[in-house]
């Protein structure tokens, strides 16, 4: 047998052993564990603001840690910084490339980042008298699907080149490259303690990575199509994913396996985005069918829906204080709901 | 896996060996703890505890005054 064939057999055997170890750890399910918990009440939210200003599809949005400002990215070639309370635009950042797929707000509020089909992550300083480009991070060989700041000096990116990377913003170079996915990486989420992150990819897998040693620690399977959205539970011990297979799934990190799925026979649109309420009890999932469905994360039941967009919901976000949820859409509008 | 070259495949196998070593917790322990964590936090969740949303930045708390 050739070496390659040998290694492929070994990989399959290891995967079988991992599955067996997971089964051995699965001595109860979520339905039993949450049987004593009352179902979440029906959630009916009102649109409090409709933010108008973009001239084309919105692809991404991200809240500032101040719970008031947020950044949105549109293929009209602009990043807009909004004061969500007043609904006013605070800043507009013209992009060199209008094919933007992601945007991010630094925890400090000083920087924002964007990236897309230009394969680059561009970082802007919002605090200089005129907004300046401070770095163009150029090393990915595929589109930039997601970016998240750890601080003003470090940023994580995920790319269509199947890798994720940690960058040093002072040198503009990659410190660590995370290699293990075999499909385009579509999304990433930082753990609450900032020591690890998870990525979702077109290989239908989610992976947990140690930021410092660059290793893939755990791999989560179950989806049958691209994973477009991923988020950590606020407790840090579970993650949730949203996929083109029209379902969301919760994976328990400690048990290393899927513990509950969020799906409906009537739903046949892909999940584009998701966000969690501060307790993690509610999941806000944006879909291709123009709606955002609200799921009870412990019971797996749909408890509400946000209808109002005239096109695909492409992004959702809940600020740190959990006081609202923002949805962004291909209809060019952002809506704030609570 | 068919798209990987020899080095990549070797790395893949090494990674799987590492991932197999992960110390898995039983769901009978992890799930009740996760459930408890979420339940305790629900009190602070503006979507689930209306008291937290009393000061809603997006709703006018007082009537408009004509100056």
Give an overview in words.
The complex is a heterodimer of chains A (338) and B (67). Chain A has 338 residues and is mainly beta. Chain A contains 2 helices and 28 strands. Chain A has helices at 3-25, 30-33; strands spanning 47-51, 58-63, 69-74, 78-83, 88-94, 100-105, 111-116, 120-125, 132-138, 144-149, 154-159, 163-168, 173-179, 185-190, 196-201, 206-210, 216-220, 227-232, 238-243, 248-252, 257-262, 271-276, 282-287, 292-296, 302-306, 313-317, 325-329, 334-337. In chain A, the strands form 7 sheets. A 4-stranded antiparallel β-sheet of chain A has the order 1-28-27-26, with no helix packed on it. In chain A, strands 2-3-4-5 form a 4-stranded antiparallel β-sheet, with no helix packed on it. In chain A, a hairpin with a 4-residue loop joins strand 23 and strand 24 (292-296). Chain A starts with a helix and ends with a strand. The relative contact order of chain A is 0.13. Chain B has 67 residues and is mainly alpha-helical. Chain B is 45% helix and 0% strand. The radius of gyration of chain B is 26 Å and the shape is elongated. The model of chain B has no long low-confidence stretch (mean pLDDT 90). At the A-B interface, helix 1 and strand 17 of A face helix 1 and helix 2 of B. Chain A: InterPro entries: G-protein_beta_1-5, WD40/YVTN_repeat-like_dom_sf, WD40_G-protein_beta-like, WD40_PAC1, WD40_repeat_CS, WD40_repeat_dom_sf, WD40_rpt. Chain A: It comes from Cirrhinus molitorella (mud carp).
């Amino acid at each position: 047998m050739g070496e390659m064939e040998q290694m492929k057999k070994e990989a399959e055997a290891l995967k079988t052993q991992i599955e067996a170890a997971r089964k051995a750890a699965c001595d109860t399910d979520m339905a039993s564990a949450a049987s004593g918990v009352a179902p979440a009440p029906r959630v009916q939210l009102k649109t409090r603001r409709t933010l108008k200003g973009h001239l084309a599809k919105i692809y991404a949005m991200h809240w500032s840690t101040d719970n008031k400002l947020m950044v949105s990215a549109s293929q009209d070639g602009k990043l807009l910084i909004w004061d969500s309370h007043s609904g006013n635009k605070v800043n507009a950042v013209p992009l060199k490339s209008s094919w933007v797929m992601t945007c991010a707000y630094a925890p400090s509020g000083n920087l924002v980042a964007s990236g897309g089909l230009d394969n680059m992550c561009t970082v802007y300083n919002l605090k200089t008298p005129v907004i300046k480009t401070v770095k163009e991070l150029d090393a990915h060989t595929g589109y930039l699907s997601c970016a998240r700041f750890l601080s003003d000096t470090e940023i994580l990116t995920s790319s269509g080149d199947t890798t994720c990377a940690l960058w040093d913003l002072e040198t503009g170079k990659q410190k660590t490259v995370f290699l293990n996915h075999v499909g385009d990486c579509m999304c990433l989420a930082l753990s609450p303690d900032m020591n690890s992150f998870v990525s979702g990819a077109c290989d239908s897998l989610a992976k947990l990575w140690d930021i410092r040693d660059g290793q893939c620690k755990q791999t989560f399977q179950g989806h049958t199509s691209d994973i477009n959205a991923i988020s950590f539970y606020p407790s840090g011990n579970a993650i949730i994913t949203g996929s083109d297979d029209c379902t969301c799934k919760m994976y328990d990190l400690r048990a290393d396996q899927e513990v509950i799925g969020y799906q409906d026979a009537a739903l046949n649109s892909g999940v584009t985005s998701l966000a969690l309420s501060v307790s993690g009890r509610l999941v806000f999932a944006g879909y291709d069918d123009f709606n955002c469905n609200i799921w009870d994360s412990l019971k797996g039941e749909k408890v509400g829906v946000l209808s109002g967009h005239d096109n695909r919901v492409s992004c959702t976000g809940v600020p740190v204080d959990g006081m609202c949820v923002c949805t962004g859409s291909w209809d060019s509008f952002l809506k704030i709901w609570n | 896996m068919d798209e990987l070259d020899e080095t990549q495949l070797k790395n893949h196998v090494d990674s799987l060996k590492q991932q197999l070593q992960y110390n898995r917790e039983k769901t009978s322990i992890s799930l009740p703890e996760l459930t408890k964590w979420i339940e305790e936090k629900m009190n602070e969740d503006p979507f689930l505890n209306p008291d937290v949303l009393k000061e809603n930045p997006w709703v006018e708390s007082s009537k408009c005054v004509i100056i």
